[in-house]
Amino acid sequence: MQVEFEYCPEDSVAFESETTPQRNVILPVIIGGVMIGIPGIAPALALGYNWVALMIAIVYFSCLVRYVQRLSLKPQPVTLAPGPMQVRLEPNYLEMWTDHNRGRIAWSHVERTVVERDFATLYESEQRKTPIPRRAFDTPHAMQEFVQLAEQYRLAAQETTPPEIGLYDDDFFAAWTRDAGLSVEYENSRADWSYVMEKGATEYPWQNRGARIGRNALYLVLSVIMGGMAFGVGHPGFTAFALVASAAFWYVGSITLLTIFREIRREQDIPADWLCRRNLFISPAGLISLTPFAIFCSDWLTLAVVQNTGFIYLTDTGGTVYYTTPKRAFPTFGQAEHFAHEAENWHEAAYIAYCERVAEEAEQVKRDAAPSDEENPFRSPQT
């Protein structure tokens, strides 16, 4: 059974749960922010340096207010992939096809299939899903039949062991297998994904969790030391400096440690499928991701490459991270750098070729629209 459809801007409502900020955390953020803010100004108040306390409070609480306002903002509309999309139900796998992506995933790793609002939604996990709008079906009954068949295949896969999905079973992935390229095999840890869920794909130098905890614990120690010096030294100028430094160390250390602890808590939300062994192959044609239960291919026009000292991130054009490749998976750091640079070069080459193709098509449209010599009454006299 197969459906074909094209997303429109109104379909972004189906992706709300992935992009809407968790506004229920605003109150805890305010309470926690106030509790963290008080120790930063308390020493200055205790010593009678009210002007220092006021200055610290203005800076800190203005930052807190801006952060709360940012949490309260409505999310930007989701940018949906243009062009037609096909979803096909096969007994052994779920198949998806677009102009730039192709994928097959075993039913044993589809979490559930449900009708939500005006969409038939196929969940790989809570974080990744494929909503199919109602208009893709001829009738509401056809939509129900589609969901029931998908659920039937999913339940059957839990009772039997279907054959593995092969990259070369047919020509479905042929566009991605024709070129030579580079590959790496790796497994992600929960810490890898919780880090990127907290910070996103960033070029900021990566540090392991232990080093970050140690550095920020040191900031708290320095805060205590500077606070003690403020109480022990009688010089007004140095006391004011020590109070400001103590508050700065306290805020940086405590807030960063809280984000690290939140990162640790996020580990329980990481789907087990994200931790499986994965073979990632890149070539001028794009990317192939192979796991024991799924194959996904994407061309470079739908991907972006971001790297830092610890990871190579492959994201969609909206910044959502799909592949978190640890550089520790490579035999040497140099090979990891080479892999990342080749990905960047192929991505850039694909984008340049796409721009040139669009320019040529636009020029051809102009030529086709221009009147021919016989139709142009202002043509030059011919001899």
Can you walk through the features of this model?
Residues 364-383 are annotated as: Disordered. Keywords: Membrane, Transmembrane, Transmembrane helix. It comes from Blastopirellula retiformator. The chain crosses the membrane at residues 25-42, 48-68, 217-234, 240-261. This is YcxB-like protein domain-containing protein. Helix 2 packs antiparallel against helix 3 and helix 2 packs antiparallel against helix 8 (236-266). The chain has 383 residues and is an alpha+beta fold. The protein has helices spanning 16-19, 26-46, 50-72, 140-159, 174-177, 190-199, 209-232, 236-266, 333-369; strands spanning 2-6, 84-89, 93-98, 101-106, 112-116, 119-123, 129-133, 182-186, 278-283, 286-291, 294-298, 303-307, 311-316, 321-326. The N and C termini lie far apart (65 Å). It has an eight-stranded antiparallel β-sheet with strand order 1-2-3-4-11-10-9-8. The model has no long low-confidence stretch (mean pLDDT 85). The protein is elongated and about 80 Å long. The chain folds into three domains: 2-12 and 79-165, Roll (PH-domain like), CATH 2.30.29; 21-74 and 195-269, no CATH class; 166-187 and 276-366, Pleckstrin-homology domain (PH domain)/Phosphotyrosine-binding domain (PTB) (PH-domain like), CATH 2.30.29.
